[in-house]
Amino acid sequence: MRVLLDECVDRRLAGDIRGHDVVTVPDAGWAALKNGELLAYAQQQFDACVTVDRNLPFQQQLSNFSIAIVVLRARSNRVRDLRSLVPQLLAALP
Fold first, then answer.
1. CA distance 48 to 17
2. Which of 13, 15, 43, 85 is most buried by a 10 A CB count?
3. pTM to 2 decimal places
């Protein structure tokens, strides 16, 4: 599965998402894009987008996009806190 990591997710988390092709927003060259535009581009090349932006579902009509959106809810955006969610993320991706 091709997974896009949003800018607000620590890029070090990509190495923990084993078994999937993970690309960060900056590595894709999309760092300057706003959420709606980013999702429009992402849906053409990725199966899922992982973010910690809890407001995204309220800012965008997610049903308009053909990409799965996974919002990680951790104590903080620190990679240490996000890593505890990786098993749940890996279970949700398929």
1. 12
2. 13
3. 0.91
